[in-house]
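We emphasize that the prediction below concerns an isolated chain of 118 residues; any contacts that depend on oligomerization or on bound cofactors are therefore not represented. The input was used exactly as deposited, without trimming of termini.
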Amino acid sequence: MFESYIPLILMVLFGFGVAFVFLILSEWMGARRETREKITTYESGMIPFRTARERFSVKFYLVAMSFIVFDIEVVFLYPWVVSFSSLDAAGFWAMIIFIIVLFAGYYYELMKGGFQWD
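Result of the prediction step, given as a token string:
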């Protein structure tokens, strides 16, 4: 049984080996020319006008968490939709409960002003 995994193990070892060799070669052969422009904060081509160490607003993190919740929703809903025809009633009601809890969270966020991005 172990013999069937040998090609996979060899491929993983080869991948790690190539990555390690490339890291060493780039460290050894890479150019090291620091200019004032290279060490400044990148602002999409604009001249930086503040430091990069400023605090972010709490709204930024609320929007980020909302985005993660939307992604997790898709991760759970997509397989459910694909296998919907082969599910029984328990699978249907489990997803209905998930959607109700999800919308309760969205309603809470709406009432707290989490969707007001101004």
